[in-house]
Amino acid sequence: MSAAGIYIHVPFCLRKCPYCAFYSRIYSTEAAEEYVRAVCRNIAALADRDITADTVYFGGGTPSLLTSEQVGHILDTVRKSVHLADPEITLEANPTSVTEEKLRDWLEAGVNRLSVGFQSADDEQLKFLGRLHDSAGAENAVIKAREAGFRSISCDLILGSEGQDIGSLDRTLDRLLSLPIDHLSAYMLKIEEGTPFDSAEIRSRTADDDTLADLYERLCSRMSAAGWEHYEISNFARERSYRSRHNTKYWRLDPYIGIGPSAHSDFGGRRYYCPDDLSAFIEADLQPTETEDSSPDRAEEYVMLGLRLSEGVDLGRLTEYGGDAEAFMRRAKRFAGTGLLTIDGERVSLTEKGFLVSNSLIAELV
Ligand code: SF4
């Protein structure tokens, strides 16, 4: 079995951003202490399962709100409980909670990859998104992280906020590409049900589908012109070695173990999640879990996720997952010559043009 990834969901934020549907509560030092104890209990319980892991990912929420001692304590517990082999250890950080001291301490604790919530270089867009930082703060966080010694830095970028046109995206990319970053994740702003952004008024102020498509195309061509590798629909790496090893596990159906409320797992042949309930997570001896899907169609999942990657779907692996490789190839061949996908021997992958219409294209291919 491939080495597993360990995902730790840190469910705290200083304030809720109005577009965000991730599970998090307002930060308090007491709740964070109790939460860290519960995380360590759950990780320690993995000790008798002989698990090898090669990635650890602190996601959220806002993991950078944890003290460096708390991050260090969690990582020490991971090291004692699983075999950690040449690990990539990522921590998501919001610019407002990055300090030089924390950066140094995170590095010392073993964190070797920082993912900064940059989002935009336009302060009006950041305000619209309800972010607490401004663009100068985000740039400063990236520069300080490199100076502290981080050799792998990623930034998140949001496409489609109010006022974003090609010119403003260009300005953000100019800033980002002038910074010492190695990876970029670009997400389209999606209005999630039940969030404060879920209103006709906000929808009318954000980018429509055509604008989003133009922004995405511009992003792809700028990153390609800068020599970056577009290895997944939403992800770019300065070089292959800077791809997110942890997130690649999700797209390749490799095993991962999620700890914390709302964290999902795919491990030991079972897909499950811990419900969105911080109190229940803190109070339980071991985190409660619910089975997501007792018999997922692995072949279908492999096609849906594999086509997000530029490496695409390998027919041999599809067969291993019980898929009908011949039928898949027949469907793929219908699109040969459209410029939407390429067929290279045993491999089918989407082109950038295909990425743009990936939802409908993948539905045709599954
Ligand atoms: S976008 Fe990030 S910082 Fe904002 S509420 Fe969501 S998890 Fe918290």
Short overview:
The chain has 366 residues and is an alpha/beta fold. The chain contains 15 helices and 17 strands.
List keywords for this structure.
17 strands; 9-stranded mixed β-sheet; single chain; 366 residues; binds iron/sulfur cluster; alpha/beta
The total of helices stands at 15
Q: Give the termini separation.
A: 25 Å
The figure for the number of domains is: 2
Number of strands: 17
Just name the CATH architecture of the largest domain.
Alpha-Beta Barrel
Structural class: alpha/beta
Q: pLDDT below 50 for ≥5 consecutive residues: which ranges?
A: none
Q: In order across it, which strands form the biggest sheet? A: 9-10-8-7-6-5-4-1-11
CATH homology superfamily of the largest domain: Aldolase class I
Class of the largest domain in CATH? Answer: Alpha Beta
The residue-averaged pLDDT reads 95
Could you say what the CATH topology of the largest domain is called?
TIM Barrel
- From the spread of the alpha carbons, the general shape counts as globular
Portion of residues in beta strands equals 15-25%
Ligands bound to this protein structure: iron/sulfur cluster
**What's the gyration radius in Å?**
21 Å
Largest sheet: 9 strands, mixed
Residues in helix, %: 40-55%
